[in-house]
Design a protein that fits this description.
It is built from 10 helices and 8 strands. The chain is an alpha/beta fold and 288 residues long. Strands 1-2-3-4-5-6-7-8 form an 8-stranded parallel beta barrel, surrounded by 4 helices. The radius of gyration is 18 Å and the shape is globular. It binds flavin-adenine dinucleotide.
């Protein structure tokens, strides 16, 4: 991911442990038509290497679909030898990009890593990977203090992070304040904005409870009004995400990372609505 500094990327999750890999093929076939700069693949916190399909899907994307892939990797329950095994597998498949994460602390037994920055340092010493990290525009759920978040971002950069992908957010003004703070604190690496289209009220309430993202009044009205009308909520959620993305691109953010929920219909609708805006921004960056 070194060709330039502006990215439009997608995020998918692997099928459940007891579902075969092929259950994601249809989604990937349709998502690849969007021609994103890369697709990231999530990783189950505490998931065992044997059951984890992140490496397989990242390899499929890279080697079969010929799309750059970014493998998420959590460390909360890992021993160094687990990380050795998975990074050797990723490297043997030609995967160069890792999103180095701690994983949520659900009382999972810790092993050799306390924080994501420890994982960064360990992977950095392997000298084989481009390390990307998570950042939190509203602070992390365990600690909402943005000063501590900025300190943690700096720690991650010192330990090898070359760019960030943010936690999802629904209020662009919160994101802009966070960006201002990061930049004025001397953080100059690219930060991509993670956008999640809202298509289900219960799902979004569960996710925001876990990650602490604020639901602004405008989105709350949409959720309440269309919660029992699946299609209407989906259309309104797509429109809300498009509105957020256009505003972010026009304001000059470093990139958009779209959480697809493995739903190509939604991702394609969003892509169709922003195609020419993406083309314009890509042309701008080409001319730098
Ligand atoms: P850390 O950076 O380690 O931070 C965790 C907490 O510890 C924070 O409160 C931080 O302030 C604090 N902290 C960090 N370092 C120190 C220190 N030295 N001293 C004291 N406190 C410290 N989860 C998954 O399970 N799978 C995924 O695929 C996945 N993908 C994600 C993708 C993105 C873009 C994002 C934003 C999150 C993702 N998550 C995923 C969720 C993530 O694992 C959780 O948010 C997790 O709780 C924190 O991960 P982290 O890497 O940011 O941790």
């Amino acid at each position: 991911m070194t060709k330039r500094n502006w990215f439009f990327s997608l995020e998918v999750f692997p099928p459940k442990v007891d579902s075969p890999l092929r259950t994601i093929y249809k989604a990937l076939n349709e998502l690849k038509e969007i021609n994103p700069d890369f697709i990231s693949v999530t990783y189950g916190a505490g998931g065992s290497l044997v059951n984890n399909k992140t490496a397989e899907i990242s390899s499929l994307l890279k080697n079969v679909y010929k799309i750059e892939s970014l493998a998420h990797l959590t460390c909360i329950s890992s021993k160094k030898e687990d990380i050795d095994k998975i990074t050797e597998k990723l490297s043997s498949e030609g995967i160069k990009n890792i999103l180095a994460l701690r994983g949520d602390d659900n009382g999972i037994q810790r092993n050799d890593f306390n924080y994501a920055s420890d994982l960064n340092e360990y992977i950095k010493n392997k000298d084989k990977f481009n390390i990307i990290s998570a950042c939190y525009p509203e602070g992390h759920i365990e600690n909402r203090d943005l000063d501590l978040e900025i300190e943690n971002m700096k720690r991650k950069i010192n330990n090898g992070t070359t760019s960030f992908i943010s936690q999802l957010f629904f209020d662009n003004d919160i994101y802009y304040k966070f960006l201002d703070k990061a930049r004025s604190s001397g953080i100059n690496v690219p930060i991509q904005a993670r956008i999640m289209p809202v298509i289900n009220k219960k799902q979004i309430e569960r996710i925001t409870t876990l990650c602490g993202a604020t639901i602004p009044p405008k989105l709350s009205k949409i959720l309440n009004r269309y919660e029992h009308n699946k299609e209407a909520l989906r259309d309104a959620g797509i429109a809300y995400a498009v509105d957020q993305i256009i505003d972010l691109i026009s304001t000059g953010v470093d990139g958009i990372h779209l959480y697809t929920m493995n739903n190509p219909y939604v991702a394609n609708k969003i892509n169709d609505s922003i195609k020419l805006v993406l083309k314009a921004i890509n042309n701008e960056y080409k001319n730098y």
